[in-house]
């Protein structure tokens, strides 16, 4: 799926240009520019208060930016503008449903609002109930659902009209591990098989790394970094941890051979990490053979905290 204007090049499904949102002294979103291309799963990653929800609300026309512009599916977003509504599914607040209505009835309300036909069988409501594993809950009232199933119902409501673009604020909140895996598979399948573009927010890099194709790191309203999820591995720092029976001597030996060991014999020199066997050889030759040589890799959460500069907070 591509969005085209006349004969020109495909335009991004989402385009944010220098968008800011201020609330008095608080700058919730600060000069953000980003593009999301068709079929991407773009994750906005940020700690609490980073500005994710504010940016998502801007995309949906719920908040007007103080500065800059936001376009979705080729149309400039402004308050009351509904052009993209029929082609967009979204989940932005805590999952809400009519408590007295059943799962099927809740979805039926959305079907009517969106003027979707009931045919061909099974119809959009039953199809989405099955797709989101809600079949055994279809006749249960929403008020009797667990948090996870309520979240699943909210996703079903966002998907019932098979949107081209799906915008989800923290979509796996409240789901158990099996539910997280299921939603991840569903979103990946939507992007891969149906070309659906997904923009989601999360504060969990580990989760996002498994799901997203592109990641934008937001902090204090600013987009600090954007990267392809496939390039994440190269961003993770590595180091070589060495242990010997005489670390003081080993430290001296390594320091005089062009390495830069920390006091606990951790090396961050590239050539040490690439060639730990050379470190071992030096130590053996100088009479302090290593009892341990371990290349350690930064985990994803540490990387994220390093990028947002909060690791020492
Ligand atoms: N209506 C508002 N009035 C004043 N400040 C606001 C308003 N909405 C958001 N903010 C502030 O803007 C900043 C960004 O909030 P936002 O809800 O967008 O962050 P978030 O990344 O979605 O956080 P969370 O993960 O906690 O939902 C926060 O400091 C928040 O307190």
Structural features, described:
By secondary structure, the chain is of the alpha/beta class. It folds into two domains: 14-233, P-loop containing nucleotide triphosphate hydrolases (Rossmann fold, 3-Layer(aba) Sandwich); 238-297, no CATH class. It has eleven helices and 13 strands. It has a six-stranded mixed sheet, with helices on both faces. It has a four-stranded antiparallel sheet with strand order 2-1-4-5, covered by helices on one side. Strands 12-11-13 form a three-stranded antiparallel sheet. The longest helix is centred in the middle third of the chain and has 18 residues, at 177-194. The radius of gyration is 25 Å and the shape is elongated. It starts with 13 loop residues before the first strand and ends in a 6-residue tail after the last helix. The structure holds adenosine-5'-triphosphate. Residues 23, 26, 28, 46, 48-54, 203 line the site of adenosine-5'-triphosphate. Keywords: ATP-binding, Nucleotide-binding, Transport. This is ABC-2 type transport system ATP-binding protein. GO terms for molecular function: ATP binding; ATP hydrolysis activity. It holds the Pfam family ABC_tran. InterPro entries: AAA+_ATPase (IPR003593), ABC_transporter-like_ATP-bd (IPR003439), P-loop_NTPase (IPR027417).
CATH topology descriptor of the largest domain = Rossmann fold
Tally the helices: what do you get? 11
Shape: elongated
State Rg: 25 Å
According to DSSP, the number of beta strands is 13
Q: State the end-to-end distance.
A: 43 Å
What small molecules are bound in this structure?
A: adenosine-5'-triphosphate
Low-confidence regions: none
CATH architecture of the largest domain: 3-Layer(aba) Sandwich
- For CATH, the homologous superfamily of the largest domain is named as P-loop containing nucleotide triphosphate hydrolases
Fraction of residues in helices?
25-40%
Q: Would you list the SSEs in sequence order as H and E?
A: EEEHEEEHHHEHEHEEHEHEHHEH
Which strand order do you get reading across the main beta sheet?
6-7-8-3-9-10
Any idea how many domains?
A: 2
Mean pLDDT across residues: 89
Task: Report on the biggest sheet.
Answer: 6 strands, mixed
CATH class value of the largest domain: Alpha Beta
What portion of the residues fall into strands of 2 or more residues?
25-35%
Derived from helix and strand composition plus strand pairing, the structural class reads alpha/beta
């Amino acid at each position: 799926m591509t969005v085209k204007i006349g004969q020109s090049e495909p335009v991004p499904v989402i385009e944010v240009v220098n968008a800011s949102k201020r609330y008095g002294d608080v700058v919730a979103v600060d000069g953000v520019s980003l593009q999301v291309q068709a079929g991407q799963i773009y994750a906005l990653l940020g700690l609490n208060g980073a500005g994710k929800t504010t940016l998502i609300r801007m995309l949906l026309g719920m908040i007007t930016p103080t500065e800059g512009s936001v376009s979705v599916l080729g149309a400039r977003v402004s308050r009351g503008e509904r052009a993209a509504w029929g082609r967009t599914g979204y989940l932005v607040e805590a999952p809400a449903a009519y408590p007295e209505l059943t799962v099927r009835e809740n979805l039926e309300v959305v079907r009517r609002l969106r003027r979707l036909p009931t045919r061909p069988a099974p119809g959009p409501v039953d199809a989405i109930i099955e797709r989101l594993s809600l079949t055994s809950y279809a006749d249960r009232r929403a008020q009797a659902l667990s948090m996870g199933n309520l979240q699943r119902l909210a996703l079903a409501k966002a998907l019932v009209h098979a949107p081209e673009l799906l915008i989800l604020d923290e979509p796996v909140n409240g789901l158990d591990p099996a539910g997280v895996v299921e939603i991840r598979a569903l979103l990946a399948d939507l992007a891969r098989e149906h070309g659906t573009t997904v923009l989601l927010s999360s504060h969990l890099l580990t989760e996002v790394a498994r799901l997203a194709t592109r990641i934008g790191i937001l902090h204090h309203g600013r987009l600090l970094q954007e990267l392809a999820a496939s390039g994440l591995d190269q961003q993770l720092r590595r180091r070589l941890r060495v242990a010997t029976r005489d670390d003081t001597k080993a430290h001296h030996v390594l320091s005089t051979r062009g390495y830069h060991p920390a006091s606990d014999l951790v090396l961050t020199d590239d050539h040490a990490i690439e060639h730990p066997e050379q470190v071992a050889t030096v130590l053996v030759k100088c009479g302090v053979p290593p009892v341990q040589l371990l290349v350690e890799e930064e985990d994803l959460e540490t990387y994220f905290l390093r990028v947002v500069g909060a690791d020492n907070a």
